[in-house]
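User: I'm curious whether this sequence folds into something compact or stays loose and floppy. Could you predict its structure so I can see for myself?
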Amino acid sequence: MINPGSERKKVAQLLEKEAEIQKLWENARVFEQDANDENSAKYLTTFPYPYMNGRLHLGHTFTLSKCEFAVGYQRLMGKKCLFPFGFHCTGMPIKACADKLKREMEDFGYPPRFPIECEEIPNEDVSSIDEITKDKSKGKKSKLVAKTASSKYQWQIMESLGLTDEEIKKFSNTDYWLDYFPPLCISDLKRMGVKVDWRRSFITTDVNPYYDSFVRWQFEKLRAAKKIEFGKRYTIYSPKDGQPCMDHDRSTGEGVSPQEYTLIQLQILDPKPTVIAHITLPVYLVAATLRPETMYGQTNCYVHPEIHYSVFYAGEKEDIIFIATARAARNMSYQGLTAKNGVVQYVEGLEKVPGRAFLGAALSAPLSAYPKVYALPMLTIKDDKGTGVVTSVPSDSPDDFAALADLKKKKPLREKYGITDDMVLPFEPVPIIEIDGLGNLAAVEMCHRLNIESQNEKDKLEEAKKELYLKGFYNGVMLVEKYAGQKTADVKKKIQAELLQEGLAKKLFIFGLVGQEALLALLYFGNRYVEPEKKVISRSGDECVVALCDQWYLNYGEQEWKATAKEALAQLNTYNEEAAVQVRRNLEATVDWLHEHACSRSYGLGTKLPWDPQYLIESLSDSTIYNAYYTVAHLLQQGSLDGSVVGPAGIRYPIDMRASGKDLIQNHLTYLLFNHVAIWPNQRELWPKNIYFKMSKNTGNFMTLIDGIETFSADGMRLSLADAGDAIEDANFVFAMADAGVLRLYNFIDWVKEMVELRDQGGLRRGDCSTFADRVFANEMNKNIQNCAAKYEATLFKEALKHGFFEYQALRDMYRELCGGQDGAMNEALVFRFIETQALILSPICPHVSEHIWQILGKDDLIVNSKWPETVSVDETLCKAADFMREVLADFRARIKNAMSSKKKNAFAVQPTEAVIYVAKEFPTWQKTVLEMLEKQAKENNGVLPDNKTIAHFIGSESSLKKFAKKAMPFVQMVKEQYEQKGPVALASACPFDQAAILLENREYIENSLELDRFSIKYTDEMDVAPIISETVVPGSPLMHFLPPKEAINLVARNVNVANGLFDITVPVVNGDSVAVIVRKLRRLNKSIKPRFTVTLWRYRDSIGGDRKLINSDEPLTINERLEENATFTVDLESRAVSVSSNGSTYPVGETLVYVAQ
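Assistant: Here's the prediction. I'll summarize afterward.
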């Protein structure tokens, strides 16, 4: 178990060394890069500038670490690398927080005394599918809400940051936020060791005159290019206040945005229900849907029997009637769907009508396969979302299917609401969408899987909806009409447009427009219904609506602009092949459906629109090409964040890598493409080249960047960030992994110090790197360095860490093991080649530890200024030989364990000590034929072997294999299993290396590892080898067979050195044992004989009485004679005597040997 106290000491030591190294880098100004006239390769990487209303956290750190790792690697490759870092202050959150603090001091004094009993915020009934179906062009929450949702008062939020009352008071001034948080973020990032050129850092808004001018220039260019237009846009609006209700104006509902629906008009057919029978105008139940593509599957319409609905006039001439909730009617009146803006004209006496009055009404549903459907009861409808009218698609909505099934099964329920059988029983779900794994009636399938019996099983229905919507909302495949075969995500807008066009004649008058202008208005506004995502209450106590208000907007819907953006996307690299297809598909879909984006607002911080200064440019719109500003920021601002220092009026553009979150695909990153092609339409070389997508989460509590550093050290945290993953899915920062990383790094530093000391003492083997272990270690270092470089290049940092640290460290451990587990047996040149290359290839991820190791090695230069290690071509045959050794040793260990299994009849009672290894030089002729046949099939089938039936057919048609028919298929099955594990090498008919030679060269390692006294090698083609062995042993997979134990005579091995701590050992001696075998037995029997000890054996010159004589403590070996390494023991079991032979002479041993271990 790890001692927490000792771990904290290790972190403290790492932090101390990191601070020293960071100071060294800063003094050397190693990360400052300037453009020059050299034609050298450059690398510019950027990270979305973080918002300055708090300190950076691990979510920021995870994504920016990808920039950091990439730039570290590219520096080693000799490129001029720039990683600049800005700070975003544009938008509402800072202003809103500052204003809140002012109000709280006005309302509750200074320091504020808040009410003890705070008003509880009601729990909102949030559907699990809201995140799936929401408008993807919007972010998740405003930064303000995301960071403050857990506290009621802003003052309390600031207190949670550890600020004093006097300090908090200063934050009521927006400028103080801009002065306070950016320097803290810089300090935290410096402690992380990021390779940032801080001269180029800046803050946004008009506080910085240079950046302000840059944004104004950008928008002047966009307007001149006719990319910016003025018109009505959907906005959260307070009717009571008569103006848009932005976040700062709300008492509840901060961060809530407009949610767009398609308004489906279901005309009530004659005879109309009694309550509206007197109305002669067309009457429509209006339903709001997020899924217009499902309208082909309508079987009925639902209303709630007890909810009150309003019957009101719609259209400019009020010549159609809508039925919806009063709340929905109020929203529609501000969206051009009634004659007067903000006025709902109700049909007299029908302001409130219970839903039961409309049950059983016959309806005409657009796009439905049924010419007539009916209004039926649904008891789960709520009046606080949508229109209160639900169009029913039971094939793809679990709620709709459950409600329809209830009505079909329960006649009393139908009778209760006056629903006749013909209104329900003939209607069956219509297949309209195919969903992978759920079929073409997905809702029916999910209800059956979850055993949903009633519309009242809320939890089960929620689970069913989540599963179905997750798979079908974007990736379902349409089955109907001209859209058959297309994905639902691709046809939503098309079907919405089709619904608009179907209602064109009766919609023209809504806007009082004619001709082309009317069609455009219809496509943008007609048949749309928009309401707040959740309830929004203004500070005046008014429930807000969504209204059409005048705004400046970027017209991303312009087709020519879209086409050019697609060209930029086509040349964009999104890295990570596994995720690239998904990312590119999402970007392409976003470019396709993106239309207008409001680029102005009236509240917050930022840059004023140059031609209409009453508006500010909103925060997403001033953040699209700012990466270009980094190239000149240091020349303009001279390193001052706010541009207060005037400089002369950079590194080359464009962005080589942009790291960002996948949640920004639907807004910021797509806007980045659009704006680059608009500002530089004829300079493709300035368009973004690469975007890296990533998001993160951690499995523990929220943690800031500085907390992460102080808990795990900078490099311990960075190691865990790299190990967290590179796929598009969210990654986990696991605290236990970070703790383990700290220990690994600390132990590596200690080991390097030990090796330097051992080298200085001459304790490492010197000379040629000629042993098998040397050759393998050198070769596999080269291989891993090359693999590591490839993964860095592909920004697969988890894989780079695997090849460049975890596997690399394992190579060292394996090398040491092959060298007998002794440091001194390792080659000095190879050990220090390993240390130097390990420091280099790890330095992009753990630069402080690597720099420290560079210092320990006595290097004059800095590792961050060094170059990637050079390598030679990898010897693949030697790699296979190394794999062979690993695999056979694992197999031999398993066989020893199996041989001693008590469940076996012939189990060994004690550990076997002798073995024969059977080696096959090549396959028998018939097996070669099978292998050649399989190899041919694999080549013809793109590396895939056919099924056994096909293979059996080929074997049966080969005449030379007929007499081996019974053996052939078992052999094929064995080969197929090997092929799954090893690939094409499993089909080779012979080994590319000498198996026996490798086993013999590693004899000592094998015997020590398996605690064997000896082994011999036999080839399977030798005459005395049993047929079962010759037929089953194949090249590359030798078989170890253990021999029964031989009878032995026990001798006493005595240590005669004074005060040594090693005592007498009884050691069994078998005829033919060598000195090396006896030494190996001694090590096995006495674990106090350390691997680093050299052990020698001595005999008594007087074999009978020598062990009884007194020992001279100064010279204890004067009565002994050392045995040569080639000496061999002979055991005479009859006389129970042991002798030793060396150099042609034989000597009796007696009952005692002497051993020296030192």
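Summary: The two ends are 32 Å apart (CA to CA). Residues 118-123, 135-150, 504-526, 695-701 have pLDDT under 50 and may be disordered.
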